Amino acid sequence: MILAIETSCDETAIAILDGLNVLSSKVASQIKNHKKYGGVVPELASRIHTETIHPLIASALEEANITFQDLTAIAATETPGLEGSLLIGLTTAKTLSKLLNIPFIPINHLHGHLYAHFLSETPPVFPLICLIASGGHTQLYHAKNHHDLTIIGQTRDDAAGEAFDKIARHLGLNYPGGPLIEAKAKTGNPKAIHFTRPMLHQGLEFSFSGLKTAVIQLDKSAFSIEDICASFQAAVIDVLLHKSLAACTQYNCKTLCIAGGVTANQTLTETFKKACEKQQITFHVPPISLCTDNAAMIGAAAHFTHKG
After folding, report:
1. In the predicted model, is pLDDT for residue 154 greater than 80?
2. Which of 54, 113, 146, 239 is deepest in the core (most CB within 10 A)?
3. Structural domains of the chain, ranges and CATH numbers in brackets
C-alpha cells in the first residue's frame, strides 16, 4: 500500500495504490496561477505546493478509505524537476516515512512516465522502446526489463513541449501552449509551410531549437495562425516518430510506448498509431490523465522498485 507524491513542477499530485490498483489519484493544477506570467514561476510553484500538499494527502486517504497506519511505503519524485518544488514533496515523503517507520522510495520522474503504462489492463511487454516527450524533456529509452532502462537518445537543446510553449507565446497564445497549438492546427494545413525536420537522419538525438527559431523568423503576414500551428506541429511529430521507429529498428524492438505531456496531443497519438500498425509494431499510449504529471505513475514505478 503505497502513498505516492509528485511535485516536480506545477502540479501537486497524490495517489494511493494497493499494488497496481489505484485507490485514489488527486492532482491540483497551478496553471491558473502561472498563466499570467506565460510560464511556471519556480518560487510561486513551491509556495503553492506547500499550501496544497497536506489537504490533498488527507483527501486521498479519505477517498481510498484508509489511514496512515495502513500504508506500507511512501514514494516521491526525487529528480528531475524544479528544486524548490521537489523539496516540498521529498520533505513530506521522508517525514512521513520516519514517523510511520515505513520505507521511503525515491523515483525518477521520467521513469514514472514510462510506468504509467503498467497501470493499464494490457501493460507493454519487454523489451520496448519508450519515447518520453514533455515540457522539459525529450528522451528515448530502451527498456530490457524493470531493472534495465537505458537512455539511447535525448534532445540537445529545447524539449518538444518547451518548443510548443515558446511558439505559442510568440504567436500570442496563452500558457500552456501545447493544447492551444493543437486546437489551432486542427483547422490548419500541415503542408502550408515546410519547416526543416532537424537532425532527422542523425542518430537518435533530438534538436528543436532551430525549428523554434524558424517559426519565430517566419513572415507571419503570409500565413494564417492555423497553418503556422499545423505546419510546426507536423514537423515536431515527424521528428519524434522517425526517431522512435528508428530506435525500434536499431534495437530490434516490436513494442513502442509514448508518454509525457506532449503525448496527450491526439494528432501525435493517431500518427504514431497508424505508423506502428503499418510496421507491425505494438503501440502503447496511456490515457490523457496519465500522460500529464500525476502521482499514480510514481506509485507504479515505486511498486516495481519496492518489489525488486
Report:
1. yes
2. 113
3. 2-114+292-307 (3.30.420.40), 123-285 (3.30.420.40)
